[in-house]
Hints:
- By secondary structure, the protein is of the alpha+beta class.
- The chain contains four helices and eight strands, in the order αβββββαβαββα.
- It is about 45% helix and about 30% strand.
- Strand 1 and strand 2 form a beta hairpin.
- Helix 2 runs antiparallel to helix 4 (about 175-195).
- The mean pLDDT is about 80.
Amino acid sequence: MTKFNNIVQNNSMFGTIIFLQQILFFLSTMLIIDVSSILHLEDYELNIIIRIFKIPVAKIKVNLITLKYKINGIKFAAPLKLFVSKEDEYLLSQIKKNIIDKLYYDDIVIVSNISMFDPNITADIIGISNIVCDVISRHLKSCNRDIKVTYLNTADFKNNHNRIEFDVRVYFTFFDMVFAIIMSLYNRRRYVKENKK
């Protein structure tokens, strides 16, 4: 009977070790997050698609005039808030500190198509866009030597299509994400309690 109990305990311990290894493996898995955004200047519409492992998880459409938005086809009646409360502002700062600042940026692509009625103005805007993109590229590479920045600014003299595309690929682990969300919510709750006293 004692030998049987020892076997059961050993199997239980072995199962616990395997379970913990699987949890650690899951938490250490690197998320590949792709964010694609397209700004249509004619319609004043911003489309954002967020993919994890190339699988779309969120599609956001924002009208920049009315500030009405849709998330995955669901239309929200209330417009986006441009001004937030102090508590929400603190939460956003915590999210930036704990999540956005810890993302590993790998690949950034900027593509624009400019079409003004005057070819000279169009050429000037493309020239300025190239300079701005070059400055952004140099700054990002000074912060992260491994980052790849690609940009292309083109003109369309036949059609009045103005749009800007911005694609970025970042890496983030499950552990970092869970820890960051918990810390952000905890710090916000503590901030609210301290300011209510």
